[in-house]
Hints:
Mean pLDDT: 89
Oligomer: single chain
Number of domains: 3
CATH superfamily of the largest domain: Tetratricopeptide repeat domain
CATH architecture of the largest domain: Alpha Horseshoe
Number of strands: 6
Low-confidence stretches: 68-81
Helix content: 55-70%
CATH class of the largest domain: Mainly Alpha
Distance between the termini: 54 Å
Amino acid sequence: MQSGDAKELTCREREIAAAYAGGASYRDIGARLFIAPATVRTHIGTIYRKLGVSSKIALLRTLEHAGPAAAFAAEVIRAAPVRRASIAIMPFQGDDAGCGALAQGLVQDIIAGLAKLRAVRVTARGSVFTLAERGIADHEAGRLLAVDYLATGTVKRTEDRVSIAIQLVETRAGDILWAERLDCGGPELFEALDQIGQRIVGALASEIEISERNRALLKHPDSLGAWESFHRGLWHMYRFTREDNDRAQALFREAADMDPTYARAHAGLSFTHFQNAFLLRPQDREQEAERALKTAGLSLAADERDPTAHWAMGRALWLAGSDGEAVSELRTSVDLSPSFSMDHYALAFVSCQSGDAEAAVTASDHARELSPFDPMLFGMLGARAMALFRLGAFEEAADAAVSAASRPNAHVHIQAIAALCLAAAGRLDLARSYAGIVRRNAPGYRIDDYFAAFRFPLDVRAFYREQADLIGF
């Protein structure tokens, strides 16, 4: 079907088309134009028929190339706000004056930590505290601030211990999405509070991501904006199959096309190329590594203060063989946002192979503390296992590797780590069992495939090869 002429659209249709192509949802457009979301949907159907398009990307390109007659529409596209999830961290309640000071300091740390992640819009401290000082209830404050999520909490102190209770609420329905109680104490109380603050930031970001991902999955594909396309892509990305990785790649590309300034969309695209090079299409490793590097560069260009951009660049540089530069980028990511679990995991991944193995263990442990239910938990445990293998702690390495391989989305390289670490620990029967699992999932897989994926010093490679010989690998 050929694209029609934007001149055929009425002024109202051009405005709706431009806002929709720019990433606004039916609800956003309806609120802006004072019409029902269902009416917006009807207009979109008419616009698609008039222009002869069938997707949001095709609509955007048609409007961009429509010439002077669509100048107004193009202007609206540039001005249309791209949706981001938003959160307000309400003042935590303390049971006495001293505890109240601790509580508000913790709230400020959480606000700053979430802002550094750059994953969601965070309401400034002043706005939130002003509403609290006026005695406005949390749920009403959430409505007045027009945020998607609200975090509330309490802080209690008994002698030298502090107990923190926190919950995350979805403001539209009032549902509690996550609740946790954390305790700390001892002589290093303030250091422990800092670590708890990082854990809370990581947990809030993770729960919001899951909520937004699930919401995006329930939406019709034609109604996705840049934000929804990105989060729908995350769901596919963590399936670790060729088909899902290709689908994630297409969704991330759509998100980046709709919003070129969306650094995380470019970073997600880089990750899919990394996955192709590392796991899914190793025969195309060189070309996929180049694509991973290029899209990571686009992420940095979009927002060099987004830790995800530096994370993507660090992984891409490792693929390209530049370990030192990779570690530098990943440390920049950690500096920008200590609460981002993936940058700690990526540091563990790089360091466990040829860098500081002890530092890799620490980074892996910290990544899991920040995100204990992460979809990449198998990788965090796998990196820990490889680091312990290099340190000669074979029993610990085997235990970590088996835990990694037991995760539901663990891929063939993780299963190979388990087989080799178990062999080094002398648990040969179980090691051969895991080797059999590897061969069933990837017929013909051998130790050279393992070395093609990972990079180890020559002495470590030689010891790995000895373990492979023991189990017929």
